[in-house]
Automatic annotation (TrEMBL):
Descriptive protein name: AmpE protein
Gene source species: Marinobacter persicus
Alphabetical GO biological process terms: response to antibiotic
Keyword Disulfide bond set for record: no
Membrane-crossing segments per the record: 45-67, 150-168, 274-294
A cellular-component GO term for this protein: plasma membrane
UniProt keyword list: Membrane, Transmembrane, Transmembrane helix
Amino acid sequence: MILLVLLLAYVIRRRLDGVNRVSTDAFWRHWFGAHGRARAGREHAVVPGLLRVLVPAALLAALWFLAIDQELRWTLYPLELLALVLLMGAPGWRQVLEAYSQAWGRGDMQAAWRHIQRWLPAAERGEALSPEAMHLSLSRTLMTSVFERFFLVVFWYVVGGLQAAFLARSLVALAEHWPQAPARVRFARMVDVIGWIPSRLLALTFGLAGDLAGWSQKIRRVLPGFRERNQRVLMTAADGALTGYALDPSRFSGLHPQEWPDFGGRSLRAIRDLLNRSMLVWICVIALLVIAGVV
């Protein structure tokens, strides 16, 4: 039943993302902002934010144990389906990427930058980036967003149930929306910790979902990578798994200058296709685990 819930939630979420509906970002900002004020000198404190996510996670865990004890586990599946649909998802990306690709194709890099500026990390929004650096920044942000809003949630749902998936997604939301910037940095480190294993699993999955030969040459640079950031692991693995220098714009422009106007859209489609195929691999593996009785 877990596999069915996960499949339904993924399909529904993808359809909602396609039409840019049901974004939960406003909810997270309101929830954290309502009681997210800090006294002077306490901006780095993470306890208030953690309390706001640990209490609901504990309630979900208690509800799960109660259902198991009463042999009513099946009653939680509708709740899990609804919760996964809300926890997963990256609405808005499709429209942004289409506008960016069109501007890139016209050679209007300023327009391309305006389309994506607010989606990039705050440290990179004000920088005058070259087209190559701008595209790599967008690619890195896109891959990280999809990882944290889909793969991270799926991994912890399978491993620890809805309460673990909620806690993982909540930490991502804290790193993005908590009012105090110093605390957001600390929450981001927590996201790196809980994302260490799933990011390495996804990096390994890229080898199955992409070019195995190219991937095998790059992956050894970052795995196991105990001190490597999750972003770098994913980008390096994806760079090897993708063909046509999809994540190497400088080399592409040198080898195929006449095809440069098509590079932006082509590269982003390759990244999205790789991530979609990787999710299919994960679903197949989860199905095998269900059949084997492990999950």
